[in-house]
Design goal:
By secondary structure, the protein is α/β, with parallel strands linked by helices. It is built from eight helices and seven strands, in the order βαβαβαβαβαβαβαα. The mean pLDDT is about 90.
Length: about 200
């Protein structure tokens, strides 16, 4: 499966989602993670882990370029799975990362600002659907369960924006907040997130 994690707004949990999804996929087959963010957050995470004496179960390459989908053709054949972490704001890079994907995951925090700032991402995906009609999954992150904001965010995503929202929600949890620089161990809710995606994408 070729998976791109994107949201043009920053601070939504893209890198965290990329790390945990890549870790889960690496337990199913040979997986490559691509850091397409010029800030290099995904690569920095793995470097911190290596400095602490642990190694990710998958390689990471930095490729923050506007022709990522073309360059990826040269090495994706060596892997069963690809996960691309994308930057905020850089439409050209995000566009290319989507063109390299079979499925897109959009992490969304439950807030009115995040919903408002999500619209450019949704519009970009709609524009690209004529070129590369990917599956799109929204996943709610940093959720306080049972709150009005969580319920209303899900309603807006599904009914107003027409997105498929995964039933699994990633909670606001200290274990996630403190996980930077650590090798992913238990996937926690990301195990269910990956399971929902895999069931639809028919990944064994």
């Amino acid at each position: 499966m070729r998976l791109t994690v994107c949201n043009l707004k920053g601070g939504t949990g893209k890198t965290m989602s990329s790390v945990y999804l890549a870790a889960g996929l690496s337990r199913r087959g040979r997986t490559l993670a691509v850091d397409a963010d010029p800030q290099g957050s995904l690569l920095s995470w793995s470097e911190e882990a290596a400095a602490a004496g642990t190694e990710f179960g998958f390689p990471i390459v930095a490729l923050p370029v506007k022709d990522l989908h073309r360059r990826a053709r040269h090495f994706i054949g060596d892997y069963e799975h690809l996960v691309v972490d994308t930057p905020p704001g850089h439409q050209a890079i995000v566009r290319s990362a989507v063109l390299a994907a079979e499925a897109v995951v959009i992490p969304v925090q439950p807030s009115l600002m995040d919903l408002d700032r999500l619209r450019p991402t949704v519009e970009l995906l709609a524009e690209l659907a004529e070129i590369n009609d990917v599956s799109v999954y929204a996943v709610m992150t940093r959720v306080r369960r049972g709150t009005r904001s969580a319920r209303e965010t899900r309603t807006v995503l599904e009914e107003d924006m027409g997105l498929e929202v995964l039933s699994t929600e990633v909670p606001l949890r200290e274990a996630f907040g403190m996980s930077f620089g650590l090798e992913p161990g238990p996937l926690m809710e990301y195990e269910e997130v990956l399971g929902e995606i895999a069931a639809t994408e028919e990944v064994a």
